[in-house]
UniProtKB/TrEMBL annotation:
EC number: 1.-.-.-
Cofactor(s) the record lists: FMN
Domain (Nitroreductase): residue spans on this chain: 24-168
Matching Pfam families: Nitroreductase
Protein name: Putative NAD(P)H nitroreductase
Family under the similarity heading: Belongs to the nitroreductase family.
Entry keywords, A to Z: Flavoprotein, FMN, NAD, NADP, Oxidoreductase
Source organism phylogeny: Bacteria, Pseudomonadati, Pseudomonadota, Gammaproteobacteria, Lysobacterales
Enzyme class, first EC level, given as a word: oxidoreductase
Domain of life of the source: Bacteria
Length: 199
């Protein structure tokens, strides 16, 4: 059963480095429960402008090799260590889910709003797996934006990968990093800025 996150939990949220994510990951019923929670996001127009693609463990090595080959095509002088990173990009966490934005033509809902809805799904999935006791990380990288990779994932012209959510168990304590001062981020609207031009 998913445990609701408290404000304290949310205030201490952090992403685990992907290389430090290992087994166990969520089993199938737990993952589906997390996805069910993840899709409860703001969705103007009820367009459902998102879908998810799980990358099974059996496909990870083939995908990694394909990414390395594709990167070499795009950048012939790419460093070998970068290609090694491509090969292992999806090999750490036991569960990896690609979140896809599926943009629908709409006179009322701009593309950006639909992409933001899909982004909310990715973040909500991180929150859901945390509520189930797992760790996660939301990454993109060059592969998320490459048209050939999009073809491998079966994306339509109106779709794009918002990110890859890596889910597992953190092997080390995730260190805190410096956060911005909230008072420097919050300002107040000044109504004196409103003016109308005269005809």
């Amino acid at each position: 059963m998913c445990v609701p996150l408290s404000l304290s939990d949310l205030s201490e949220r952090r992403s685990a480095p992907v290389a430090q994510l290992g087994a166990p990951g969520p089993d199938r019923p737990t993952l589906l429960r997390c996805i069910k929670a993840a899709i409860r996001v703001p969705d103007h127009g009820k367009l459902v402008p998102f879908r998810l693609i799980e990358i099974p463990s059996a496909a990870r090595d083939a995908l990694g090799e394909a990414l390395a080959r594709r990167h070499k095509e795009l950048e012939p002088d790419v460093a070998p260590k970068v290609l090694d990173k491509d090969r292992t990009r999806f090999s750490f966490a036991p569960t990896v889910v690609a979140v896809v934005a599926r943009v629908v033509e709409s006179p009322k809902v701009p593309r950006l709003e639909q992409e933001l809805t899909a982004g909310c799904v990715a973040f909500q999935l991180l929150q859901a797996v945390a509520a189930e006791g797992f760790a996660g990380n939301w990454l993109t990288g060059w592969a998320a934006y490459d048209p050939e990779v999009a073809r491998w994932f079966g994306l339509e012209p109106n779709e794009l990968i918002i990110g890859f959510v890596h889910i597992g168990t953190a092997r080390v304590d995730v260190p805190e990093r410096e956060r911005p001062d909230v008072t420097s981020l919050l300002s107040e609207f000044n109504p004196d800025s409103i003016y109308f031009t005269r005809d």
